[in-house]
Fold this protein.
Amino acid sequence: MPTLEVESLTKRYGSARGVEDVTFAIEPGEIFGYLGPNGSGKTTTIRCIMGLLRPTSGQVRVLGRRVVAGRATEHTRLGYLPGEFHIWPGIRAARSLNVLGRLGGGRRIAERRRQLAERFDLDLRRRVGDLSKGNRQKVALIYAFQHEPDVLVLDEPTAGLDPLMRQTALELIRESAERGATVLLSSHDLGELSAVCGRAGILREGRLIEVAPISQIVQSSEHRLAVWFADGHLAPRLPAELTGVRVVRQKPGMLEVAYQGPADPVLKWLGRFAVERIATPQMSLEDAFIQYYRQPSAASVPRGGDA
Amino acid sequence: MSASARVRFPFRLLRFWFVRIAPAWLGIALLIFVMQIAVAAIIHDNHNVRTFLAFLNLLPSIVKSALGGDLLDSGSMTALLTIGYQHPFVLFLHMLYAVGVPAGLLTAEVQKGTMELILSRPVAKTHVYLCAAIVTLVGLFGLDLVMFAGTAASVRLYQFSEPIDLYLFFRIATTAGLLAATFGAFALLFAATFRRLYCAVGVSVAFLTINYFIVIVAQWWPAMQFLRRATLFYLIYYSNLWLGWPVRNMAILAAIALAAAALGALVWRRRDLFV
């Protein structure tokens, strides 16, 4: 039985769009990625799941119970990390976390909080307002994990963290899933999701346009390669036999291509030239979407596809 | 599962909010207390009273209206002591709390984003509103009890030429507390309704100020007397507190306060706090 079910969820803000007819389900112990550019409706979905917004239609079920906005359904077992974490700036981090953690009867959280603070190398005696953005994000992570919830709803959990702490946060998410927690992980970073998620849903302009295994999403994406040639005037043309490769940008002495599948044919062709420098630029999420949905195979994956 | 689904009243949030508000409350309470002592210090001396009344008569008559109007002309110590209860500074201090606390606990927490964290814990939205209402209403009643305590202390500190009926002042303080709580209830309604802090504060201050100025203008300008019934102040200012408890008016005030607070709770529960 799924731990978290979203059924035909629609949320409109007057005439403005929120999300439209979103359906997905997450099984116990699964990490489900929720991918979409800014303004695509990720936070709206999450707030409906948390009972912070009243859906226009459709419903959300958490741990088998229907979520009713404002009634804190099953919230003792929910861990939440909002996209923008704001906590009382004038109060010490430990006290804020204690007040929030013990709301509604949470107990035995002090020891867990201490362990998490050690892991994130964070001094909880400091006032939140005095902390850097990265350290405030660590407080947010401790807030979400301190009561060892069965369901975690995380909106951009690694935003502002350095690469080392990003890894720690992702490890923590993995460990939670291993002990059976269900995780909804919202992000606009495909690379981050591919590191921890089994499946992901892709949201675009308020609609869930795909639910697919993350490996499929990653494989279907294009990769990019930028090359600077030793000869500053060189402008080679792509040979016809190099299929699945397209020119993104070209100027004298420089070429950027996008390719699908293995990089080997592209690299072999480039080996004919004197290459001075090479780079692998990140595609924007929007580019990835555009490219991903060019693929006919992608459209054939049914919504709510298996993990 | 049923145990986890039960939502308990968030006493911890209530305690946290009380503690957060405590310094502001103590500051306001101290000023109100000192104000009563100061008024008593001025008026306990007959010579001072005469000078003070003569000075008041030199000022525009609306100033006298704001401090108690014709009641002061009697020269009675008891009447003059009530200046400490209706002085604009004391009313301003009450307004500060009545408007600031609901707006600070509800609207500001929503605007700052901390309400999202509170509501992501096992806390019902209505309980959060109830916590803010308790902090507001108990705090306002508390301020009026401090006001009475100020008078009681004054009576011990200074000798008056006539006996001071402290029970009368307790009656005035209690009814004033009810009036303040009613304004607090309206401020709760506005705090629950508006998304932006400046809107919640602005509308609450406007509501209170308009009520106050209508009653003052109606007192000062006979042609405008018909307006006085349109204000909440009317229910207390025009009750004869000297004779006994204005039970009917107190019941009306309590009903208005309850209705405003309940409407606020309904709006708060139904409204999407986050967009």
